[in-house]
Every structure is written in structure tokens, then in C-alpha cells.
Design brief:
four-stranded antiparallel β-sheet; about 100 residues; BMC domain-containing protein; Alpha-Beta Plaits; alpha+beta
């Protein structure tokens, strides 16, 4: 069974680390990648079962919004294998 994927984008590295910690503690997920762009926008991609992803993304989004650092978040439930492969390949690339 394909795992689901979740993405949270924030403004700032410090808040993204706090969010990643909270998501890992709240749900059985795995961080695929944390990507920093121009030291302003940080994207955290996670994977896990559907319920865990929904819970983790809800918590991560709530923390980011409360800190006024939220940019975007989404979940992709049981993605098509092509989309899943794309996210996995991006996760394997070294950080810029």
C-alpha cells in the first residue's frame, strides 16, 4: 500500500524545526526532506499512513499559523506511483 505524503511550507528555519519536531512526536511519520530556499521559505515533506499524515499536517499547520509563519500545506493521500516517485526522487537530492 502506498504511503501518503504531506508538505508544510513556512517562513523561517527555526519554526520549521519546531514544526518537524512536533509532527514527529504527534504521529508515526517519516521526514522525507527539509528544503530551505533563500533562507526564507522552508519546505518539510513527510510520509506515513493517511491518518498519521493528516494529524501531522494539521499540527504543523496550526503551529505555523499561530507563529504567523505559515505559507502553505497540503496532503496527498495515497499518491499515484508517478507522483510518489517524483517526491522520493526530490527527497534524495542533496540540499542546495
Amino acid at each position: 500500500m502506498t504511503k501518503s505524503i504531506g508538505i508544510v511550507e513556512t517562513r523561517g528555519l527555526a519554526i520549521s524545526i519546531l514544526i518537524a519536531d512536533a509532527m514527529l512526536k504527534a504521529a508515526d511519520i517519516r521526514i522525507l526532506r527539509q528544503e530551505t530556499i533563500d533562507l526564507a521559505l522552508v519546505t518539510i515533506a513527510i510520509e506515513g499512513d493517511t491518518t498519521a499524515i493528516q494529524e501531522a499536517i494539521a499540527i504543523g499547520t496550526q503551529i505555523a499559523i499561530a507563529a504567523d509563519q505559515w505559507f502553505a500545506s497540503t496532503t496527498i493521500l495515497r499518491p499515484d506511483s508517478t507522483v510518489n516517485g517524483l517526491v522520493i526522487e526530490i527527497a534524495k537530492k542533496p540540499s542546495a
